[in-house]
Amino acid sequence: MKANYGTYIPISTVDWHGKAAVVFFLRGCPFRCPYCQNYEILTGSDLVDIKSLQDKIESSIPFISSLVISGGEPLIQKNVVKELAKFAKKKGLVVGIHTNGFFPQVIEELLQEALVDSFFLDIKAPLDDPEAYGKVIGCEEYNLTLEPKEVIENITKSLDAISRSNVDLEVRTTVIRGLVGSKEDIASISQFLAPYIKGRDSPYIIQQGLPENAMSENLRNLKPFSREELLEMAKAAQPFLNNVWIRTKEAGNERVNFEFI
Ligand code: SF4
Questions:
Q1: Which residue's CA lies nearest to atom 5 of ligand 1?
Q2: pLDDT digit string, tens, across residues 160-181
Q3: What is the number of domains present in the chain?
Q4: What is the distance between the alpha carbons of residues 39 and 33, in angstroms, rounded to a whole number?
Q5: What is the pLDDT of residues 198-216, one digit of tens each?
Q6: Which residue CA neighbors atom 2 of ligand 1 most closely?
Q7: pLDDT tens digits, one per residue of 109-135
Q8: CB distance 31 to ligand 1 below 6 Å
Q9: Element (H, E) at 196
């Protein structure tokens, strides 16, 4: 089997909070988020035998406890993800998938086959606002033919499937000035998420976007939101969620203690 390969990190401590992981970034994605940092692997082809990826996992095994499959959108390569996950599980690793939620069917299959221990799901904009969602996934800027309403339906199905399962779930929103990150955005996302994640205490992470590395040149001169601004956004999530985190370049991952902000 061939994988359309992007790149990999042999040992990472930042892609799965609290774990050391080998991380694969698979090529291809249906979205074109203007702030994407991995835009060099959204298209193109670099077909490699899956055995070479398994060899990379073997080499990292003395130093890691987990495999993370990221992208791009890794679930576009369903069979590759399944093979890598099966291999990792045989080797005693836990498996995490970074996903934009666009392929709920694949998520269902992975759950049924018990191949994943944690999903890291990006929620990019308010799910009750197709126009805003379309803008953040690049429909306008990159003339995508995707229908934002259908994208939101797919993501909601993914969220529903994962929340009904017993695998871990982390939900993240990357915030970028002028695109997503107003208090209203965060309140709307949090309110939507609450029925899916509050009962299972899954973390919601507000993640500082770094515009200088963005795919869109229009964003590159923007100032990133500060840690203080992210804390203000977290306050907007508080009425709906109780396990809220912020992630910044300067301070890493911080669980927000609402008593002290
Ligand atoms: S940031 Fe957007 S375009 Fe980039 S890999 Fe993720 S979903 Fe795809």
A1: 72
A2: 999 999 999 999 999 999 999 9
A3: 1
A4: 9
A5: 898 999 999 999 999 999 9
A6: 33
A7: 999 999 999 999 999 999 999 999 999
A8: yes
A9: helix 183-197
SS3 for 204?
strand
Cα 175 from Cα 198, distance rounded (Å): 21
Q: Is the CB of 130 under 6 A from ligand 1?
A: no
* Cα distances (Å, whole numbers) of residue 250 to 36, 164, 246, 254, 258: 20, 35, 11, 11, 20
The answer to whether residues 171 and 138 touch, using CB atoms and an 8 Å cutoff, is no
The two tokens of residue 251 are 């301070």
Locate the DSSP E strands across the chain.
2-12, 21-26, 47-49, 66-70, 94-99, 118-122, 168-175, 204-208, 244-248, 252-255
d(CA 240, CA 15): 26
What confidence tier does 259 reach under pLDDT thresholds 50, 70, 90? confident
CATH of the domain at 252: 3.20.20.70
As given in the structure block, the two tokens for residue 238 are 């508080």
Residue nearest to atom 6 of ligand 1 (CA): 72
Count CA atoms within 13 Å of residue 194 on its CB side: 13
Q: Please report the atom of ligand 1 found closest to the CA of residue 72.
A: 5
Predicted local confidence at residue 261, as pLDDT? 66
Angle of helix 50-60 versus helix 78-90 axis, rounded to 10: 30
261 Cα: distance to centroid of ligand 1 (angstroms): 32
Instruction: Tell which atom from ligand 1 comes closest to the C-alpha of 41.
Output: 5
Q: Is the CB of 29 under 6 A from ligand 1?
A: yes
Segments forming the whole domain that contains residue 66: 2-260
Instruction: Tell me the pairing of strands 168-175 and 204-208.
Output: parallel
